[in-house]
Specification:
Blueprint (H helix, E strand, L loop, with lengths): L1 H8 L3 H4 L4 H33 L2 H24 L7 H30 L1 H64 L11 H54 L4 H9 L3 H24 L4 H43 L2 H29 L1
Helix pairs in contact: 1-3, 3-4, 3-5, 3-9, 4-5, 5-9, 6-7, 6-8
């Protein structure tokens, strides 16, 4: 187990074997922090991705990849923080690693906050869904309100036409009755010619009223059918849009609902993960240089010295070889035999060029 956690810390296991037990325990503790931080990242990302994909195997697969990524980043951050002998240089070296650790802490803590406050978030989402349902019903009703209002107005006008005609028929009825009783009109008791004329007007108006009622009844029935169809379409649109509201519980919606909860509760959880994430860096930054750090610095110093020595030797060899070559070619340049040989070769080459030019010209002609 200790060897595994030492591997997680990014330390040189072979070098730690030469150090005391305290150094191994220290780096095993750092490695354990790195491992369990990556494990928490795996759980957090798996839960967050499960709310997105609704598939446990997909969430586990992507969560494992995310946990390994966090593990690799943490291991790199801790393993590259080394003692340099200068406190300010070590602080400057740790600043970008601390910033990266803060970002990782935010990424890890947020999904776990969603799980911890799941019931409170569900309550906030329920209130939002209810409000969205009422708003949706009002908006859909507003879309159909103008048509339904126009149909209702047309029905009211048709009923008013019937009421006006009924008032007219009732007035004619009262007129011919009063004529028969002798209380109005000619004031002669009995059913005379005037009574008969007024009775015919009433009967004609009554026939018109009955025809109007029949006609308007058909029109009113058609308008009421259109109102019913409009309400059915309204209910169908509300029903079709309701699943969208019911499924309003994705990752972004939950994060928004989480932000509506009291700030300090979730902030303390973030501080907890921030402390866990930055503790290995702060521990290495605050702790004095140990046996492992000194031996690692000594090994790196030997490597740097060897590299510098090899570089210097290569530069000396290059300078010496260049000087020797210059002297060799200078001596050769003074030899008459070499001059005669190159002169012979140059003469043969010029002859061949002249022959080739002659053959080419003859071919053209």
């Amino acid at each position: 187990m200790q060897s595994f956690f030492i591997m997680c810390s990014g330390a040189d296991a072979s070098l730690l074997k030469e150090c005391g037990a305290s150094e191994r325990h220290k780096h095993a503790g750092i490695g354990a922090t790195v491992f369990f931080t990556a494990f928490m990242a795996f759980i957090a990302s798996g839960h967050a991705l499960y709310t997105v994909f609704d598939n446990i195997w997909t969430a586990v697969a992507f969560g494992l990849v995310w946990g390994l990524l966090i593990f690799n980043l943490d291991r790199y951050i801790v393993s590259t923080l080394k003692k340099s002998g200068s406190r300010w240089r070590e602080i400057l070296q740790a600043v970008p690693r601390l910033l990266l650790a803060i970002i990782i802490a935010v990424v890890i803590s947020k999904p776990l906050e969603l799980k911890i406050f799941e019931k409170e978030i569900d309550q906030v989402l329920l209130e939002e869904k209810n409000a969205m349902t009422l708003d949706n019903q009002e908006q859909v009703a507003a879309l159909y309100a103008s048509d339904q209002s126009a149909f209702a107005k047309a029905i009211q006008q048709l009923k008013e036409e019937i009421a006006i005609k009924e008032a007219e028929v009732n007035a004619l009825y009262a007129t011919y009755i009063a004529e028969a009783e002798g209380t109005a009109g000619t004031k002669k008791l009995g059913k005379g010619p005037v009574y008969q004329e007024k009775r015919e007007k009433h009967d004609a108006a009554l026939a018109e009223l009955q025809a109007l009622k029949a006609t308007n009844a058909d029109k009113i029935a058609a308008l009421e059918a259109q109102i019913a169809q409009s309400k059915i379409a309204q209910d169908q649109q509300i029903a079709s849009s309701q699943p969208i509201i019911d499924n309003f519980d994705g990752l972004m919606a939950r994060i928004t609902a989480l932000n509506k909860l009291p700030f300090f509760t979730s902030f303390f959880i973030f501080l907890l993960f921030l402390a866990i994430e930055t503790s290995p860096i702060l521990a290495k930054l605050i702790a004095p240089a140990g046996e492992y750090d000194l031996k690692l610095a000594e090994r790196e110093g030997r490597v740097r010295s060897w590299v510098a020595q090899q570089k210097a030797q290569r530069e000396i060899l290059l300078t010496t070889d260049r000087d020797v070559n210059n002297r060799v070619y200078a001596d050769i340049a003074e030899e008459q035999e070499l001059y005669n040989y190159k002169r012979k070769i140059a003469r043969e080459l010029m002859q061949q060029q002249a022959d080739a030019f002659y053959e080419k010209q003859r071919g053209v002609l």
